[in-house]
Amino acid sequence: xNKLKATAPLLIILSGVIFSLYLVWQVPDDIYFSGDGxxxxxxxxxxxxxxxxxxLDLQVPQWVHNLWNDGLYPFEAPFSYKINNLYYxxxxxxxxxxxxxxxAIFGYRGFYIIPLVSTWIIWVNFYRLCQSFKFNQLIISIGxxxxxxxxxxxxxxxxxxxxxxxxxxxxxxxxxxxxxxEKEFTNKEAILSGIFIGLSVWFRPEFLALVVILVVLVxxxxxxxxxFITIIQYKEIxxxxxxxxxxxxxxAMNAMIYGHPLGAHAFQVVENFxxxxxxxxxxxFFNILKNELLKYFPITYFAGVIFIISLFRHDFKLKPAVNxxxxxxxxxxxxxxxxxxxxxxxxxxxxxxxxLVPLINFIAISxxxxxxxxxxxxxxxxxLGILFVPLILGFNLNTITAASPGKFRNDNIEVLxxxxxxxxxxxxxxxxxxxxxxxxxxxxxxxFLTKTPDDMRKLGLTxxxxxxxxxxxxxxxxxxxxxxPQIPEKLELAAKPNNLTIQIKKIQENQRYRIExxxxxxx
Length: 523
Hints:
Layout: H1 2-26, H2 35-48, H3 62-72, E1 80-83, E2 86-89, H4 94-106, H5 113-132, H6 137-149, H7 163-178, H8 187-203, H9 208-224, H10 236-258, H11 265-269, H12 275-296, H13 299-312, H14 320-339, H15 356-372, H16 377-401, H17 407-421, E3 426-429, H18 432-437, E4 446-449, H19 453-465, E5 470-476, H20 480-483, E6 490-493, E7 500-509, E8 513-522
Parallel strand pairs: 3-4, 3-5
Antiparallel strand pairs: 1-2, 5-8, 6-7, 7-8
């Protein structure tokens, strides 16, 4: 029995590994959870081919470049920006760069190795942190079940996104700090924790909030010697130098590549900055993220109850480290909405707050550990019963529902199969998300963004000059064109010596996309 208790956490982690592998296995080839992944995949494929440029260098004829420069580039802000006549995706270059070798070796499935392994590392680090606080195996097991099966974190192991990598790096740095509080913080630990947390900013800009929080707390505790904010008792200067140096290196690389230390992300948040608009957006984003966190990670309610009880019961005081983790989490929740460009768009839970998942989970089971040590058995089992409710809710949403393949995948597969079989070389799309979703078709097709009839006319005239008679037009269901076509069935083109027309007819449709074929004819 004791042996079973000792191995239970490892068995739970193993179960999580199997579940996460199942989630990745569910992902169809060349289909992404979000179009963001498609853009990053385009750059990763470019880098894996040996074209070591950080702008998106799509290999197309000059006449295509001319049309793109004239407004028909398949991607636009806030996902793509033109800087010094080069097109850059708005996401940091780092994630496509580190995943490019895995794509070169393993193909499409190689994209998921880093998100997957990063998630496993988070689980192992959570286990290490719990062990350092000497929680019993039952408490640790409950914490791991909650983290793996009742939180939104595991779903991100099956998405080609950099979020789990950034969380893994930041959480590793925090675990080094908090797991070594009973002994002197060594130079090696100070350097490594600073580097890990700093590297998280290389992949996700919202982790600048974590950096600001830690720098302020460390400096304040160094100057005031207040115990309740002293997260690092030794080697503070070494930690700060390591942390700040890591981030300055990233800023320097951004300045060289994009001409701005914050990279292309600066165009989303910094450029055209308005304090009033930023405050209003921050309030809106805060409410959305908070609600998403409570919905997808209901254990947050239990952690909140634990904190409130600790304020009023002297015999239920949480350890200083737990209170500090709570302080960091609360400040992170407040600061992140100021930094982010949106509420997250299509996501599974609040992706900008994923670092809070292991932190809040640790707070929750710290409270459970407190109640477990109370001699009154009623308190022990009442607290476990209360925790059981959000655990079941989180499990149902993040495991049962998450494991069910989405309907949109079948619609996307249908369109992708069509594009791979269709002989037309040119694809016009009404919305940039279409090009992002089907980035793998860029190997065979040339995409243009045609949002208006004038865009379609511009494309038609140039295609006629290049000898093309037909092209494909795709209208997605989430665009206005799907219900009220902005592109009519017939377009007149002013061209000499003969007038030209574009005749458009529907050839395929599902719930998400309508595919039409456009024919250019002379009158």
